[in-house]
């Protein structure tokens, strides 16, 4: 019988074997590509010394196609739990050095186990993806493994935060798990995502396209909106995850942690009084407004490069985490289009699911007109944003800085959609449409009878008359749709006071199985 020393020695040998993944040669190849190994990634992401590994000794159970000669401990994915800033997370990290990180039956079971664990104990799940896709040798067992993971993504949705980092290839069925998670981060130059690769694309559609053109980080950051963040390196990816997770709670039953703030609550920003141009058609950068009012000018923007006419992201007010949605007047005048509606709607729903208050800055001329927008479903997509704000029960504070025209006024967290505190700056224009369009509708008969300077003078007079009567915040304030018209420089103070007053907010939607979001 082996002595205890021999058994302990065997244990250490097996652990060391598992830690070597696919072996020194494959690890070296991974490093040559500028990529860390699965365990190196975990160590760089989590707090030092906090990782506890599960299922280190798992192996696949297949013998076909030579797999009986390629058996590796851990079977291509490292799973377990650890901490980020002292808070528990569950994590899996796919190991490209083992069979190209391909997913098989046991590989999937390991991921499912930690996802079940995360849902049971109420902690975030972080997936580090670097996989060649389904393990072809395992056939339907690998396909079933993907579906098992997808089911858990759906069951965990809105229960615990889910974050996906794409650190290498992610193709075919593998893309749907990240797509089902709350936030996706891609690493520039080394990661890509697509349902079908360049060879299949060329065969079916005759398009000649590279991996990067089809599914690189820049493509998904600017064209598809699939990725929420792009990092320049793996280390930047890990820092981004560590920062992102500080804004969210552990699960849907908790609040996001409050961080001690040294930024004065009553900090006044005189620049805000003059940031909106006197010319209503001149742009300005709403990002500057946000950075001037949040704690220490610290704003983490989400999907910055996609649908840039609307801004979404996280900030803090007196240490309290908030989600921020804001029209961006410097891009397409801040108009709402298909992409912007989807982007903001998804973000608001995340905040609502995880008890994060929503602060909305409004400067919107309306919805984008045109056949392109109509054919792509602006009615449905605009309704998604409307639905998100209407069903949202977390504290909602809205600041109208300038334009709030037409249906876009309603959609952008108006009082009518249960906005809790709705403020306007003196520069706000709240009306069915802008003065120019209104004059054309209201005085069409008169305009047809006029020409030249006389017509121009008439238009100018009527536009000014309309602006005085309607394009201001006071009509809405008289009706109680605006709670107060505030001095812009006091915006930070008013938001913080508002959030404090809403700490005990309780709002419920009617009992239902699910709400039917327009899809």
Annotation keywords:
3 domains, 39% helix, 2-enoyl-CoA Hydratase, Chain A, domain 1, 17 strands, eight-stranded mixed beta sheet
- Radius of gyration over C-alpha positions, nearest whole angstrom: 27 Å
Could you say how many structural domains there are in total? 3
Major sheet description: 8 strands, mixed
Count, helices: 20
Q: Can you walk me through this structure?
A:
- The protein has 519 residues and is α/β, with parallel strands linked by helices.
- 39% of the residues lie in helices and 17% in strands.
- The protein has three domains: 244 residues, 2-enoyl-CoA Hydratase, Chain A, domain 1, CATH 3.90.226; 195 residues, 2-enoyl-CoA Hydratase, Chain A, domain 1 (Alpha-Beta Complex), CATH 3.90.226; 36 residues.
- It is built from 20 helices and 17 strands.
- Strands 10, 11, 12, 13, 14, 15, 16 and 17 form an eight-stranded mixed sheet that branches. The protein has a seven-stranded mixed sheet with strand order 1-2-3-4-5-7-9, sandwiched between helices.
- Helix 4 packs parallel to helix 5, helix 12 runs parallel beside helix 14 and helix 16 packs across helix 18.
- It is elongated, with a radius of gyration of 27 Å.
- The mean pLDDT is 94.
């Amino acid at each position: 019988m082996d002595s205890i020393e021999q058994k302990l020695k065997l244990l250490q040998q097996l652990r060391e074997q598992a830690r070597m993944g696919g072996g020194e040669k494959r690890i070296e190849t991974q490093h040559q590509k500028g990529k860390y190994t699965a365990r190196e990634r975990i160590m760089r992401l989590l707090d030092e010394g906090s990782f506890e590994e599960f299922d280190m000794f798992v192996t696949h159970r297949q013998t076909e196609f030579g797999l009986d000669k390629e058996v590796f401990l851990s079977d291509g994915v490292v799973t377990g739990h650890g901490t980020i800033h002292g808070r528990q997370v569950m994590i899996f990290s796919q190991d490209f050095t083992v069979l190209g990180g391909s997913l098989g039956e046991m590989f999937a079971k390991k991921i499912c186990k930690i996802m079940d664990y995360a849902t049971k104990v109420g902690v975030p799940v972080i997936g580090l993806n670097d996989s060649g896709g389904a393990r072809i040798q395992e056939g339907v067992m690998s396909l079933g493994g993907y579906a098992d993971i997808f089911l858990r993504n759906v069951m965990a949705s809105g229960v615990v935060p889910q974050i996906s980092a794409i650190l290498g290839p992610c193709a075919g069925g593998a893309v749907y798990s990240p797509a089902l998670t709350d936030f996706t981060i891609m690493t520039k130059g080394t990661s890509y995502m697509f349902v079908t690769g360049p060879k299949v694309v060329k065969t079916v559609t005759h398009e000649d396209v590279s991996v990067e053109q089809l599914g690189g980080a820049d493509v998904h950051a600017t064209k598809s909106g699939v990725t929420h963040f792009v990092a320049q390196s793996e280390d930047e990816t890990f820092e981004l995850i560590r920062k992102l997770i500080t804004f969210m709670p552990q699960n849907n039953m908790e609040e996001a942690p409050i961080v001690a703030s040294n930024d004065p609550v009553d900090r006044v920003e005189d620049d805000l009084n003059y940031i909106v141009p006197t010319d209503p058609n001149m742009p300005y950068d709403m990002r500057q407004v946000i950075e001037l009012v949040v704690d220490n000018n610290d704003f983490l923007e989400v999907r910055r490069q996609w649908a840039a006419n609307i801004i979404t992201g996280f900030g803090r007010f007196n240490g309290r985490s908030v989600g921020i949605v804001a029209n961006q007047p410097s891009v397409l005048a801040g108009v709402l289009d298909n992409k912007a509606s989807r982007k903001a709607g998804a973000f608001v729903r995340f905040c609502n699911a995880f008890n994060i208050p929503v602060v909305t800055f409004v400067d919107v001329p309306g919805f984008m007109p045109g056949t392109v927008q109509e054919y792509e479903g602006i009615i449905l997509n605009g309704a998604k944003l409307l639905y998100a704000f209407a069903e949202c029960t977390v504290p909602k504070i809205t600041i109208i800085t300038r334009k709030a025209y037409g249906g876009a006024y309603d959609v952008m967290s108006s009082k009518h959609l249960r906005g809790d505190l709705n403020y306007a700056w003196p520069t706000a224009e709240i009306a069915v449409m802008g003065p120019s369009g209104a004059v054309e509708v209201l005085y069409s008969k008169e305009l047809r009878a006029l020409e030249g300077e006389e017509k121009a003078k008439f238009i100018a007079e009527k536009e000014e008359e309309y602006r005085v009567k309607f394009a201001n915040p006071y009509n809405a304030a008289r009706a109680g749709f605006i709670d107060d018209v505030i001095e812009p420089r006091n915006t930070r103070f008013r938001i913080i006071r508002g959030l404090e007053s809403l700490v005990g907010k309780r709002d419920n939607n009617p009992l239902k199985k699910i709400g039917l979001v327009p899809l």
